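It would be a great kindness if you could assist me with a short task in structural biology. The full record is reproduced below for your convenience:
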Amino acid sequence: MFCATLIYSYLYCLTLQLFQVRYSKMDFDTDNEYARSRGMQKRRDGEGEEEPAKSVEGWILFVAGVHEEATEEELLSLFDEYGEVKNINLPLDRCTCYVKGYALIEYADLESAKQAMRAVDGNELNDQILRVSWAFLKGPIRDR
């Protein structure tokens, strides 16, 4: 039993280290292949911009750079002025009970979501810069 626990904890630590290396290389401001495959490529005034895909109930924005102590009310007040927000998903870390660093914002209509994405991308919330992109994109799935 002790051996199984030891192996499990070793694999868990190894997985955490791999994720840290993988995501530490990611830069939201660069136009690298990893960022493009995740829909986080630079937007250039409509040039080469991919079309968002609608989820089952609406248009979902992925907000990165959310401070660990941010609340749903703060995000709602920031995004609500661009249209009716249907849903906010702010995942928490199980161990620390702090926000994981990202949020999913759902709008009912495409125009409100586009307007919010353009307006909020690059803004600060709790001394951290928010990066907003589409959660789902149309088009073929790229090889990793």
